[in-house]
Amino acid sequence: MGINPSMGYYSFRDAAGLQGLHRIARDWRMTHMDRKWLVSHLRSHLSMRNFVIIGNKATTTPMFSLEDIPGTSGRLDILCRCVTAAFVLSHGIRKDVCVYLVLLGGEIPKTVRLDGETLRHLNPDERTTAALLKKALAVSATPDWASSTSGIFVRTGGLANVLADLKGARMLCLREDGADIRSVAGCDISGDVAFILGDHMGIAPKEWTVIEQAGAVVVSIGPVSLHADHCIVLMNWMMDTNWLLAI
Amino acid sequence: MGINPSMGYYSFRDAAGLQGLHRIARDWRMTHMDRKWLVSHLRSHLSMRNFVIIGNKATTTPMFSLEDIPGTSGRLDILCRCVTAAFVLSHGIRKDVCVYLVLLGGEIPKTVRLDGETLRHLNPDERTTAALLKKALAVSATPDWASSTSGIFVRTGGLANVLADLKGARMLCLREDGADIRSVAGCDISGDVAFILGDHMGIAPKEWTVIEQAGAVVVSIGPVSLHADHCIVLMNWMMDTNWLLAI
Asked: How much is the average pLDDT of B88-104?
């Protein structure tokens, strides 16, 4: 198959994860089977970026208006912008990203999961994303993942279930008064990593207990308090540029 | 007045520009007149962050639908997200930011200017920003700035006029194939700075000529090609953390 041995782990990661791997396989004119083999054997070496966003009042039903998302959905608009920040590139979708939206604005919590590898129909505008979430919330949810549109899944359950799924990933929780993120400089976040963020209401004590029990490190990324989606843009860039390893 | 001489330029900049200056003045229990004096005498020492975004097909009329902004406005949605990225903080608006939206999708170009110091009614959701731009585009425009809602101005004219206004600011143009931004490391961007960005269509040759003539340095901020609003988030963070000076 002629895999260049010098094309190691970091080269693949620099080439934007699985997307890059698929591109390399295509450029090498591999057969479909060879390409499938390459991706299945090497994907475990690629880091997966997980973003967990807590929507404190975010609706768990599709009964909100696309004409007034902020006012009718418990600030689902914030989560829509987080989705865009996590996935969209200038010419495509980040394949190595997974987003968990923890919706706490219902009688029982729900979680919507978006997987970059199979995600379709995501446009960068807020309304389109909200429409996708509306569809997902119309799916009847149980404790098991149910599929909505391509790459979007929904289930009942909140933060504890999500962090249990992400056991094994390095967890960083973003908070204004956390330790400077540079204090984790040079750390190995080459495996799976999970960033946990709150919405405009931050993170409630109940969720804090869960986060602490999961062993997350609490970090801050700068002197100015930013919106969650802007933090995600920064985390993606830090991973793209190996910024933490380079400090 | 008891101004602490150790509270020099960088301290003010770290405190988020004019906003920080006003806060300091308030904390010191200054009288209204003293506060006005302080701000008027020191504001020239504060850097102003200008973001110039070129909307290649962006409409110059208010005849677009808030229910389908991407499809009816020549991608004004991209410019809306740029506005949000430039201004919004977790608890407020960046006062030391000015955004110029260069709209080229009409018979004659128009420019909308948003000034952080007086900007009002800006919410982080895309639709609210689009509604503010709709109002601005309904104002009858001449080559002189006409006021729309608080902090938003409009005039006819395109990029050449904007860059003439920004003469004296250090200009950086963001392009995928530009030099690594770290190559301007340690440079003095303590005065006014202007970042020039294209929308999804990039920057057309005609605008390139104008940009080159204005003496802008063409830089890239990472290995992955990002949306304009995400670049703005990163530039704001780089300025917030004095990242370029620290390299």
From this structure: 95
